[in-house]
């Protein structure tokens, strides 16, 4: 059993309006004038999204009883549906401080991903990721090791010269991460000869580390596309 097309279209429009409202609300001048309207629209949207979530749970139950419910609730889009409404209710029933409230409001961004529910391309991409999840886990493990090694090495090389910027291995993780990712913001950088030589080597290694998951995902995605084309033939 599928949800009605007109219902899905309404939800998509509501998501788009939510994204637009979120962007406009970030402007202080607009928020000061239409703050109450934004709050009312947010509450209205949450109630609609809550109804949608419960409706999809009901549809899943009618399709395959509790197995269907479990499959939907723990699916990617099921979790997105839940996360997009949960912060609102947490804020209503649990007293939270301003910092935690700002973090909760970040979860509103997950509504954007609801737009991809019926996207065949997105589903294909997710399937491609699942097909190489073991390889990606190993790459992630390798990246974490490389970051920890780089942070430790640069700490011992630069701590004496820059105790404020490389005060600990933990503080050095930021430099190691941006360097291995080949981003290089330039806010923290080595000044000693040993640090510069090490940074050069790490930057070259970082290119390879970034390229590995990119190549794995690309190959898996192409393989899934070819599989779909063969099925159509």
How does the SSE layout of this entry go?
Blueprint: H1 5-25, H2 28-73, H3 76-93, H4 98-106, H5 120-131, H6 133-158, H7 169-180, H8 193-232
How would you characterize this protein structure?
With 233 residues, the chain is mostly helical. It has two domains: 5-118, Voltage-gated potassium channels. Chain C (Four Helix Bundle (Hemerythrin (Met), subunit A), Up-down Bundle); 133-232, Helix Hairpins (Orthogonal Bundle), CATH 1.10.287. It contains eight helices and no strands. The chain has helices spanning 5-25, 28-73, 76-93, 98-106, 120-131, 133-158, 169-180, 193-232.
Fraction in beta strands: under 5%
Give me the CATH superfamily of the largest domain.
Voltage-gated potassium channels. Chain C
The largest pleated sheet is described as: none
Number of strands: 0
Helix content class: over 70%
Overall geometry = extended
Rg estimate, integer Å: 23 Å
CATH topology of the largest domain: the name is Four Helix Bundle (Hemerythrin (Met), subunit A)
Features:
79% helix, 2 domains, Four Helix Bundle (Hemerythrin (Met), subunit A), 0% strand, 8 helices, single chain, Helix Hairpins, mainly alpha, 233 residues
Put the structure in a nutshell:
By secondary structure, the protein is mainly alpha-helical. Helices cover 79% and strands 0% of the residues.
